Structure formats: structure tokens, C-alpha cells
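Thread title: Can someone regenerate the structure for this chain?

I was given the following input by a collaborator and told the matching C-alpha cells would be attached. They weren't. Posting the sequence so someone can regenerate them.
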Amino acid sequence: VDEEARRRAVQHVRSRDRSEDPLLLQALTAIKEVLHMRSADLFFVDRNTVQLLAATTGTAQTRPREQTLSSEALEYRSGLVIHDLTAHERLRTLPEVTGPPFLRFYAAHPVESPDGHRVAVLSIVDTMPRAFTARESSILRQFALQVGSILFADY
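Best answer:
Regenerated them for you:
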């Protein structure tokens, strides 16, 4: 890993407020509606923290990496699907699973910088366990690529 290139990509994402970016919000709303999910969210994943960058529900927040779903998802270059969060050994104790909004389904795909560094996670969630097809995974991946293009349009 070229740490200097990753640092530049991370700094680029950090340097801009994306919470009201109309293109990002449009992409998040589209994937939420296309896949019939409760929410679609974009999280920036730093070395020790995860920060909500844009969302169809919820407000900006920062949490330690180990207390998030996004930390897990960043490790899977081809995406991560958890059909029922209550059955996942580590994630079933997270506050968003044990309390409101009582999430059960989670799917996410890393968002990469133009030089391939995973710096964010596009995630979709629902309050019911569910199946997730290969076609739906492909749709999520395409949206993650689109979100990466938006994040790094001026990189």
C-alpha cells in the first residue's frame, strides 16, 4: 500500500463537507429506492474512526471503528452482505442492532480513490433480515463506483 497516496486520498475526502452534496444525496436516494431499503449511507473510514458523510436518514456522527459496521465492510474489496445482523458474532451487539433502529440487514461496498485506496463505505440497511442477490450486489457495486466518482471528481 502506498501510504502517501492513501493519505492524500483520505485528506481529499476529509477536506470537503459532503453532507449536503446534491449528487451524493441523489445517488444515495436512488440506491435506497432501487433496492427498497430503509436507508443508504456513506461513511468515511479513517484509521481509528468512522464518520457519516451523507445519508438518506440520520445525522452526522463519528464513532470508533470497532463500534461500526463500516469497519468490517472496508476489508471486503468485493463488498459485504450480512443477511441477519443478530446472527453475526461481533456485530449483533452494536447499538443500532440491539436498539433503535433495530437493524437486521446490512450490505456495503468500499468506495475507492482513483488510485484504488479504500477510503469510504457505501452501505444500505433494513430492519428485516433479507436475501440479497448477485444482481443486487452488482447494483450496489455500481453505485459505489458512482459515489467514488463524485467524491473524487476534483481530485
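The first strand starts at residue 39 and ends at 45.
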